[in-house]
């Protein structure tokens, strides 16, 4: 876990990543690192490049230039090894509608080389409150239940880094708080998490550091409190603040007030 | 791979469209042909069984496989699988292998029903060739289904076009081959995917053995399989957005 200099190696290194679709640049030279045990939030308006950046890290989109290292493993050169270190919850989570929970767990366990016994699965389902639903097909689960299962599947193989793309989108407040608690539990196990969100409340509540991205470029990066104190004198931020400066004011100040896609 | 194969088998068995289309249709045709003069009107026992075998393959591959693939792509199932360490070829190969196995099972069932109701008796060699032709037909129609999903992004459009394609292919293969639509259509029909495959099935089922025309049909089926597979792979997108 340490590099040649003896320093702890970042769990994720994103170096000067650029993604272009013809003349349109979706991600323009984005660089950041995530360290062990850190919860990192990627914030940005619709179409800012958050999901594309995440897709490059997940190996779903090939970057035009730059590199992504997961625990030192290049995702382009060694996709299987890099993906084995990642736990992923996509924005639109869907498993095969006709499979039952137990079958989904076995499928994804198998894809990560795990042999799970029925007792282990039952124990896990009790922990996440899905034991009663074990016999149900995925399509019969509620949105919150599907989200809980998706998070469980993402952490099934004990990954170093968890990627969560808008994990609380569409959840009721109870489910959202429950997910935040689960994220806090994962922080306690020294896992690193990269999440994208539109909720500044969520970013402030759970993230150690956040990066604000817009039009494919990284505009600011740092701890939420540090970002607020650094930008509280910025005229763009002061123009939108309605009281003490918040992370949302910094976000709107830096990315603009116009409504996006 | 075994986890994917297991999951894909479960999904396929629960896919009612695929089951009804791939098994129910050909078996019903065999049963229906035992009544009245249907057998003679449809060109004799071998023709009926050849048609039933072909119908099962077309239906399960075009109506079943392509629609299930389009639905999973639209719902994000394929993307979720792609972010696991499983290589993409494995994800697709698992589905195709299960579908070929299902087509073979359907063909065995059709032959069994035909043996009971029509007294079909084949040598071991003939059974082997029929099953080999069934594999070839399955590959050809799966490639066609893959090309459909590759060229059409919307699930509802895949569904609609798949149904039209199914009807057109079957009508061209069956009606065209009779000559009632003219000599040109008859020639086209004989080398259409359904027509060529029906020729191979029918000639294998008769004890006369293969003729020169069968080699042409075999080449036509292989050609279609290669062409559609190329289109299906070249234009396939893992997400519909």
How would you describe the overall organization of this protein?
The complex is a heterodimer of chains A (261) and B (241). Chain A is of the alpha/beta class and 261 residues long. In chain A, 36% of the residues lie in helices and 23% in strands. Chain A has ten helices and ten strands. Chain A has helices at 50-58, 79-84, 101-111, 118-127, 143-155, 173-188, 200-206, 224-231, 235-240, 247-255; strands at 12-21, 24-34, 39-43, 65-70, 73-74, 86-89, 161-165, 192-197, 209-214, 217-222. The model of chain A is unreliable at 1-6 (pLDDT under 50). Chain B has 241 residues and is mostly helical. Chain B contains eleven helices and no strands. The mean pLDDT of chain B is 86. The interface between A and B is medium-sized, with 28 and 23 residues.
Helix content of chain B: over 70%
Distance between the termini of chain A: 41 Å
H and E order of chain A: EEEHEEHEHHHEHEHEEHHH
Tally of alpha and pi helices of chain B = 11
Category from helices, strands and their pairing of chain A: alpha/beta
- Percent of residues of chain A in beta strands? 15-25%
Helix and strand layout, with pairings?
The complex is a heterodimer of chains A (261) and B (241).
Chain A: E1 12-21, E2 24-34, E3 39-43, H1 50-58, E4 65-70, E5 73-74, H2 79-84, E6 86-89, H3 101-111, H4 118-127, H5 143-155, E7 161-165, H6 173-188, E8 192-197, H7 200-206, E9 209-214, E10 217-222, H8 224-231, H9 235-240, H10 247-255
Chain B: H1 2-13, H2 16-32, H3 38-41, H4 45-75, H5 77-82, H6 88-118, H7 124-151, H8 155-178, H9 183-190, H10 193-205, H11 212-235
